[in-house]
Design goal:
The protein is mainly alpha-helical and 359 residues long. 45% of the residues lie in helices and 8% in strands. It folds into 3 domains: 67 residues, 2-Layer Sandwich (Dna Ligase, domain 1), CATH 3.30.1490.480; 97 residues, no CATH class; 132 residues, no CATH class. α5 crosses α6, α10 packs across α11 and α10 packs across α14.
Length: 359
């Protein structure tokens, strides 16, 4: 009987076909195991904790029945190599595939915001505050402006806060509550976040922070509105506590001698421009309720031009006595005080020569 010869070619073909079949089966199984667990779209909250990564999340996802297989989930990760996770809570559902789950966990914008933090640094005006609020919440800038200028709302505040007076309703004032929203960091629960709560928190903070200053303000000879107005100029014109008190003293010297305050920061506010922008000659010379560079304008602006710090408010109440009438700051924020225009011009010339002039 003739023995049939072994065919290496047929065996190789068999192995190739077998490998292809195994690969196709594995591919089908992989596709199935990484598909959605079900069609249910009910939200299931998953927490990513500090130290978690996509691989350690496998157990959590399996326990919540959000993935079919930890094994195939891990294979997906090895194939796709997603980036880092952001700590927080995420809403997932069982109708999501592994790819959709990984994509959701990889986007920090999907973190459930249980708390929202709003930080306002000292010296911001309400336009800048409105922009921060709009960026962090669903509240638009226009909604913010309309609220702080709403006559009925502002009237309701006068009965609640001793520092809100009829002075804020001067028709020349751009924003009624400018100056009275205390710069600080505020944390709100997302479900309780609304414009009323934001403003109430800020005004309550102002009330708390200046409670000890009430008697001093009443004895100062100036209204609370004038003190807040002056403090807002002091805030923007100086940096250190000592400088603030000195700057306040210069402003009082000018006020007491019926001089124009000549403060550039008021001109920027009057023009509704940022202090990094250039001012036109028309804007520099414009006469309105804010621009203290206007030759005919004596005294304080019609209202605050920023929301001052407690330090600036204290400086406005307790200025440093001096015979200075001018000041200028260099590029390193050092402030120079002088007694007359000639000394002031000399300091400016020296700063320009040294490359420290920022005017």
């Amino acid at each position: 009987m003739k023995r049939r010869r072994f065919s290496f070619r047929k065996f190789a073909l068999f192995i190739i076909v077998l490998i292809i079949l195994v690969f196709v089966c594995f591919l089908g199984l992989y596709k199935f195991e990484t598909s959605a667990v079900s069609g249910k779209t009910k939200a299931i909250t998953v927490e990513v904790e500090k130290g978690d990564n996509y691989f350690t999340m496998a157990k959590k996802l399996k326990e919540k029945n959000l993935i079919k297989s930890e094994f195939f989930y891990r294979i997906f990760l090895k194939l796709h190599k997603p980036g880092k996770l952001v700590v927080g809570n995420y809403d997932l559902n069982r109708a999501m595939s592994v790819a959709e789950i990984v994509e959701t966990l990889g986007n920090e914008n999907n973190v459930i915001k249980t708390r929202i933090t709003l930080t306002f640094r000292e010296g911001l005006n309400v336009r800048q505050m409105a922009k921060i609020i709009a960026e962090k919440t669903d509240i638009t800038e226009d909604e913010f402006f309309n609220k702080i200028n709403d006559e009925a709302y502002v009237d309701s505040l006068k009965d609640k806060y001793w520092f809100i007076t009829d002075d804020v309703k001067n028709p020349q004032i751009y924003y009624d509550l400018e100056g009275y929203l205390f710069p600080d960091t505020y944390v709100f629960e997302a479900q309780q976040l609304n414009l009323d709560n934001i403003l109430t928190s800020m005004l309550n903070n102002t009330d708390k922070k200046i409670a000890n200053l009430k008697n001093s303000i009443e004895k100062s000879g100036y209204s609370v509105h004038e003190i807040f107005t002056l403090a807002s100029l002091v805030e923007l014109e100086s940096v250190t506590d000592d400088d603030r008190a000195m700057v306040a003293g210069v402003f009082y010297n000018r006020l007491n001698n019926n001089w124009s305050l000549g403060s550039d920061v008021t001109t920027y506010y009057a023009s509704k421009k940022a202090m990094t922008e250039a001012l036109t000659k028309a804007e520099l010379d414009a006469c309105n309720g804010y621009n203290t560079r206007c030759a005919s304008m004596k005294g304080l602006p019609v209202g605050p031009i920023a929301n001052p710090s407690l330090s600036a408010l204290k400086a406005a109440i307790n200025p440093t006595d001096s015979d200075y009438y001018y000041f200028v700051a260099d590029s390193e924020k050092k402030v120079y005080f002088t007694k007359n225009a000639n000394e002031h011009a000399k300091i400016i010339a020296e700063l320009k020569k040294a490359g420290k002039w920022i005017g």
